Structures are given as structure tokens and as C-alpha cells.
Prior knowledge:
By secondary structure, the chain is an alpha+beta fold. It has 2 domains: about 35-70 and about 175-330, Nucleoside Triphosphate Pyrophosphohydrolase (Alpha-Beta Complex), CATH 3.90.79.10; about 75-165, Transcription Regulator spoIIAA (2-Layer Sandwich). Helices cover about 25% and strands about 30% of the residues.
Amino acid sequence: MITSTLIFTLGLIFVNIIHHFLYGHCHFYWRPRLLPGHRKHFSYQSTLNILPPETHGAWRQAVWNLANQPPTQPRLPLCAGKNTLGSVVPALLERLATRGVPLHSLGLQHQRSTQGESWQLLGPVTPTLAQLALALQAAGLVRHWHGEALAVQDAAGVCIGAVERGITRLLGMPTQGVHLVGVVLGDTEGPSRVNTWVQHRSARKAEFPSRWDTLMGGTVALGETPETTWPRELWEEAGLHPSDLHALQHHGRIRVAHPVGHGNDDGDSEGLSYSVEHLDCYLAQLAPGTTPHNQDGEVQCFERLPPPALAERMASGGFTPEASCVLLRVG
């Protein structure tokens, strides 16, 4: 256990050091800097309507509410000093205690103050979270171990540590992601002129298997920024390069939060996990003859949907919560 913790911690620390050497710190809110070939196309305004005109007001609010839900169980803040890193269901840590794992040995302490109850990390962020990750995995509480480090950020967006991706939902820790909505324009005018490329997620995906998603969606790993993540994910998921896109637009950042396993296919029926994602949203056009081809085996197929069909699938809950909110944002 000690050897595994040491190796895992040293790996995360090494990546973190390289990250700080290259980037200094990671801004949670960033100023977009697109690739030179797209800079002239950069815009915050979309002139494309990927959703029908009637999908406004109450319809949009209903789709948004379907994707954003409060926790199903009370959660306590998980803190490191004055920084709130996430939140935990008390029963999660009780599971470790009942297995004979002293929580203080993991660098965790339950605290009460005038602001309420919380769990405090007593040691440095990265090694403490690494030790906690291994303990949760040993207890059979980590459903999907990714072996991928994500940045832990303070309220100002400064990177203060690293965490195994597989425990971020259990700990209610915010993650960063990127989504790109790809559209193709038809030759004729009308409500179905704009068709949106969507992907059918693999049945083996760790989260929301066999749901529908945007053309590309991915998580920002430690040492990356949204603008370096989306070209990588674009190739892995769709087999496309930035040069295959034009009229690239950034539509800002949204926050999507929901229980994992509540109203979806992810299987956490106990409500221990809570997903909080900050997503950078992009919209771009693909040439009519451009067809996406998955490269990493995580997509079953791609499909082009006109606005009415896209809206119908969104309203029926066919998309992941994150994809639905991104489509609302750019649509």
C-alpha cells in the first residue's frame, strides 16, 4: 500500500511540476487564444440556428433542468485550508472507517465550525488525494480507475495539486471539459439547412454509455488548457484536424452539475457521486464532404441531425446532460 501510494504520488507530483514549469499556473477562466488559422473566424456570436425557433423559453428551461440536478444526499464540503475542493457524502468515508481504515491516517479530519461541518485535508493536496484514491479503490468504491491526473484548482483557478480522475465524482470535485458542436450547411434555405453532427457513445464508456453526444467532448487533463485539449480530442473522437473546421466560434463556459446515476445510465444508485463540470463550448462548420471517423474506439457511430430531430432527441433525454447543455448554449 505504501509503495503504491508513493509511486502514484510521485507520478502526480512529477506531472504537476512539469505543468507548473511549462504553464506557471492554470487559469480556470481563460482568455481564448485560438490557432492562427482560425483567429480570423473567432466570434462570440453565432448566426447558425441548430435548434428550431420554437425551442425557446420553457422548452429550454426544461432541458436545462433535466441536465442539472441537486445532490440526492446531503454532502459536506471537502477542504484544503481555506480552499473548498469538492464535497462528500458522509457515508462514503464511513465505509472506509468500517473497513478499519483510520481516516486520520489518510490525512482527513472532520471539523465543525460556525460555518458548519466539513472534511479537511491535513497534508499536501496531491499526496493526500493520492492516498485517499488508493484507499477508495481498495474498498471497491472507485467504479472506473482512469490512471489520469486532473488539476485541482482553487477559487481563483490556480492549480494547487493533482487528483486521479476516477475519484473526482465521488469527491464532488469540479473538472474542466471541452465540447465542439460541428455543423454542416445544406444548399437550400429553410429550417433544415443546418445539420448537426452528433456521436453515439460506446457502450463501454465509463460514463453515460450508449448516450448521444456532441461531435467531440473531452476532459482537460493536468497540464492542458481547453485550447490544447480540443484539437487532441477532435482527432481521437472524430478523426478530424483543426484545418477541417472553419468559422470556429467560442461560446463561453458553462457549469453543469448533476448526481451520477440519477436519471442516467451510470449506475451509482446510492448517490455517492456528484458531477460538476465547467465546459468550454465551441461551434464550427464542416465542409459538406467531410465525414468524422472515430479513432479511439469510444464512439459507435456518427449521425447528422436537422434542427427538429436534434430538439426531439434532446427533449427525450437521449443526450448526456453535458451535451444537452452545450447544444442549448450554442443553439
